Amino acid sequence: GHPQARLGPLLLVLTFASGLVDSVSFLGLGQVFVANMTGNVVFLGFALAGAGGLSAAGSATALASFLGGAVAGGRWRCAHPVRLFAPLVAGQAALVGVGLAALAGGLGRYAVLVPLAAGMGLQNAVVHRLALPDLTTTVVTRTLTGLAADPWRPAGMRRGLSVAVLACGALAGGLLHTGAGPGWVLALVLVLLAGVAAAAGRQGGRAGGPQPDVPPPSPDSGQP
Predict the structure, then answer these.
(1) 182 CB contacts (<8 Å, ≥6 apart)?
(2) Closest CA to 84 of 207, 218, 182
(3) By CB neighbour count within 10 A (0-12 exposed, 13-18 middle, 19+ buried), where does 196 fall?
(4) pTM to 2 decimals?
(5) DSSP code at position 6
(6) Which residues have a Cβ under 8 Å from the Cβ of 24 and sit 6 or more positions away?
(7) pLDDT in tens, 187-223
(8) 91-118 burial string, b = 16+ CB within 10 Å, else e?
(9) pLDDT digits over 43-97, tens only?
């Protein structure tokens, strides 16, 4: 099996958190995504074409911040990516904390948007390193395609869970955003990320003994 497969449940938690974070950015920060960059690129095109209700500056800022976070995460190198998982998720939690503080302090949409998008870039960088097929935590199009094209393969359950969990995160985020406000959504994200980082840290500690010197998985393995 895949050497990082034991992190699958934690990646599903990150997938749920991705839906939560995008609910905050889309519903509260001017119809912009911080996790779903495919939608963000499309929104940028629509905004540049003059579509109402969309902000080219907001979409471009989210894209740039996401890429900045991904670049920062990509600079970490390790033969065993599971060891990177906990510290990078902890870094994402810190960025979400910055966004929550900016929201509470009324510092404006960009002060919230930038750290949230950078955190999602960091998350995607570590997931990219893990290269666990069909658990990208944000990309659904390819996962849905695999589920539809090969529904009876063993990966079908994982693909279905990934899509369902992201949808549940968006649903929960939308309900919580409407009922209690975006701050509570980000607080929930912060709790989830802290829990994932703690659990991953324990797994990394158990995996910290002597291990064979193997190269990291191919960055393109299982990723769009």
Answers:
(1) 24, 27, 28, 103
(2) 207
(3) buried
(4) 0.83
(5) G
(6) 112, 116, 173, 177, 182, 185, 186
(7) 999 999 999 999 988 876 555 444 444 444 444 444 3
(8) bbbbbbbbbbebbeeeeebbebbbbbbb
(9) 999 999 988 888 999 999 999 999 999 998 888 766 566 778 888 899 999 999 9
* 3-class secondary structure, 143: helix
The whole-angstrom separation of Cα 122 and Cα 131 is 14
CA 191 from centre of chain: 15
Task: For the chain, give the number of residues.
Answer: 224
Question: What's the one-letter identity of residue 4?
Answer: Q
In the numeric block, which tokens belong to residue 214? 């193997």
Return the ∠ at Cα 23 (arms to 61 and 141), rounded to 5°.
Answer: 80
pLDDT for 4: 62
Q: What is the DSSP string of 90-104?
A: HHHHHHHHHHHHHHH
Where do we find the tokens 């599971």?
Answer: 82
**Cα gap 150→200, rounded to integer Å:** 31
Torsion angles phi and psi, residue 29, rounded to 5: -120, 25
CB 103 within 8 A of CB 112: yes
